[in-house]
């Protein structure tokens, strides 16, 4: 057993007092879990803030420390690849592919609600990724959800494979932490998408079939990866603009506060 010093990942006061940027912590956190799930096929099953510490040391100015390794899940590799395809379909807004993958997951018609769960958007949403639903979409979703009975929800949850359930739980906890650390939705979407595509681009079993089949598989994977990189570039730009807006807003508030203090001091002199 080893003692690991650090602060809980969502302890904003301690992070800021130590000079650690919470937004950088958030981006590192989502990178770690995305690589774990999409590339290596492992899931930390209990990533609550008490199990994730931030030590104010390391190359980036901090180090993430994951605790409690007794609740890991190793994903079936077929499921891992399907989950990568699912995220690719989410980003490309390929409703037909989402429905097909939903069949693989065993959720049938309930697959139409998976984008709502993971991205906060309905399956046919036209809104920009990382942004909220339009008023029209909100009304449509409300009407659809009103038509669901409790047994529908129970049936949906019971139909999900165990691998999917543990990912769903882990993702929910990570999203909560990211929200507390102050990053936009697009950070998670971009990071997940990047790792999902990389997970698909790696051909693990090139020995099966002919050399030509293996070569074509590699070419298709690389072309798909390049296509996705273009899309991720756009999403990355959106995320960067969100960061700029956040910093600009913070700087403006600081300037206004300084101006108010100076004005108050001048009035009293």
From TrEMBL:
InterPro entries per the UniProt record, alphabetical: ABC1_dom (IPR004147), Kinase-like_dom_sf (IPR011009), Mito_struct-func_regulator (IPR051130)
Domain ABC1 atypical kinase-like: 1-100
A family per Pfam: ABC1
Protein name, entry field: ABC1 atypical kinase-like domain-containing protein
Organism per entry: Opuntia streptacantha
């Amino acid at each position: 057993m080893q003692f690991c010093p650090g602060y809980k990942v969502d302890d904003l006061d301690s992070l800021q007092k130590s000079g650690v940027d919470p937004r950088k912590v958030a981006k590192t956190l989502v990178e770690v879990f995305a690589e774990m799930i999409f590339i290596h096929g492992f899931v930390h099953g209990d990533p609550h803030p008490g199990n994730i510490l931030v030590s104010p040391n390391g190359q980036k100015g901090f180090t993430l420390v994951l605790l409690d390794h007794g609740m890991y899940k190793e994903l079936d590799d077929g499921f891992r690849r399907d989950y990568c395809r699912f995220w690719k379909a989410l980003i490309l807004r390929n409703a037909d592919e989402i429905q097909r993958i939903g069949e693989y997951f065993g959720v049938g018609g309930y697959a139409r609600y998976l984008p709502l769960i993971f991205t906060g958007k309905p399956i046919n949403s036209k809104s920009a990724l990382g942004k909220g639903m339009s008023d029209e979409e909100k009304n449509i979703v409300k009407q659809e959800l009103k038509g669901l009975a409790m047994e529908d929800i129970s049936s949906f949850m019971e139909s999900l494979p165990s691998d999917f359930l543990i990912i769903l739980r882990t993702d929910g906890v990570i999203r909560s932490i990211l929200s507390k650390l102050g990053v936009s939705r697009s950070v998670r979407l971009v990071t997940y998408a990047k790792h999902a595509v990389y997970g698909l681009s790696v051909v693990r079993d090139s020995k099966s079939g002919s050399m030509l089949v293996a070569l074509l598989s590699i070419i298709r994977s690389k072309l798909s990866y390049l296509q996705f990189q273009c899309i991720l570039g756009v999403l990355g730009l959106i995320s960067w603009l969100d960061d700029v807006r956040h910093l600009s807003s913070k700087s403006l508030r600081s300037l206004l506060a300084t101006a108010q203090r100076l004005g108050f001091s001048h009035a009293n002199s």
